[in-house]
Amino acid sequence: MYRPPLNLRLSVYGILAVVSSAFPTVRDPAVCTAGPATDGRQRSPAQGTAGLASLYPGDDGLQRDRRVLFVEDFETGTPEQIGDRWGHIHRRQNITLSSDVHADSPGSKSIHYNNNAHLFTHTAGVDKMHVRFYVKFHEKTGYIHHFVHLVADREPTPWPKGGAGETPQGDTKFSTGIEPTGRWGRFPPPGVWNFYTYWHEMKTKWGSVYNGKQEPIVPGRWYCVEVMLKANSSPDKADGEQAFWIDGELYGRFTGFRWRTSDELKINSFWLLYYNTDQPARHNKDPRPESRVMEVWFDDIVIATEYVGPIHGRPKSGKKKAAPSSSALFVDS
């Protein structure tokens, strides 16, 4: 596995302090929709497919599908070992394995973050990436600052990079985060889902926000979340897309992006991020921030080049463990 020098490895602890400034201090004028958006009760992607998961009951064998890039069900290894194979773990002391799993789980473990923490990994570079994961927020959750991200990075490193308030170059980087937002106090914590997006043609230096279906997230309930990020087909075309599904229902689809100015820039990084500060409580005028419990659970992550969909059925053996994936940046030591 690639091991950066100690000073570089330690520098990641300052990254999230930089990222924190990305939460706008005024109402973001870049709350928008790029092209037509879909937020109706559509139970599958526009292509009409049921998803890769429907071909593998209980996700059993899904990791062997050629369209799958990375699988993690947290059934194998300790948090330290999971962090090693992902490539980067932040605030290990806040990460534990849990027996709290969703109703369709084919396994017996999830991963639990207590306040700020992350796992970060890389896949082979692709032009379209789907990420499916299951998530549950604590019953007493507050508002969250930043959450799960998909990233295209021309020069990937084992650790995530900062960049808050910086417009990336079109041949260097673009990213999108699926994040809960309170919409300035309109919704109770943690809020509703939206995209928080950075690319070279964004409207402001603080990124752009894309709102899908405005259905409040219920704390204490497991959700199946899927995110799709699709690069533009050539540098001169604005045909890139992003979309997200909740429990198999399409909540938002946004088109018309010229994400990149070079075909060499590929989507290749996944950031399982949970980042909290006091800013969201202030911006959403939370009357009881001191009573909030900032904890989250994740499970059954699949990264693929096609729509995955929720877990379908049960594995033949009842329970199963996926062969764990590893970061694409790993090299022989």
What is the strand content? 25-35%
Give the CA-based shape: globular
Secondary-structure element pattern, one letter each: HHEHEEEEEEEEEEEEEHE
From the N-terminal CA to the C-terminal CA, the straight-line distance is 6 Å
The helical percent reads under 10%
Q: Radius of gyration over alpha carbons?
A: 19 Å
The total of beta strands comes to 15
CATH topology assignment: Jelly Rolls
The major β-sheet equals: 8 strands, antiparallel
CATH architecture: Sandwich
CATH class category label = Mainly Beta
Number of domains: 1
What does this structure look like?
With 333 residues, the protein is mainly beta. It has a single domain (37-304), classed as Jelly Rolls, CATH 2.60.120. Helix content is 7%, strand content 32%. It has helices spanning 6-11, 15-19, 79-86, 279-283; strands at residues 68-72, 88-90, 95-98, 110-114, 117-126, 128-137, 148-153, 173-181, 192-198, 208-211, 223-230, 240-246, 249-257, 267-274, 295-304. Strands 1, 3, 4, 6, 11, 12, 13 and 15 form an eight-stranded antiparallel β-sheet that branches. Strands 2-5-14-7-8-9-10 form a seven-stranded antiparallel β-sheet, covered by helices on one side. It is globular, with a radius of gyration of 19 Å.
Keywords:
333 residues; mainly beta; eight-stranded antiparallel beta sheet; seven-stranded antiparallel beta sheet; 15 strands; 7% helix; 32% strand; disordered N terminus
Write the layout of secondary structure elements.
Elements: H1 6-11, H2 15-19, E1 68-72, H3 79-86, E2 88-90, E3 95-98, E4 110-114, E5 117-126, E6 128-137, E7 148-153, E8 173-181, E9 192-198, E10 208-211, E11 223-230, E12 240-246, E13 249-257, E14 267-274, H4 279-283, E15 295-304
Antiparallel strand pairs: 1-15, 2-5, 3-4, 4-15, 5-14, 6-11, 6-15, 7-8, 7-14, 8-9, 9-10, 11-12, 12-13
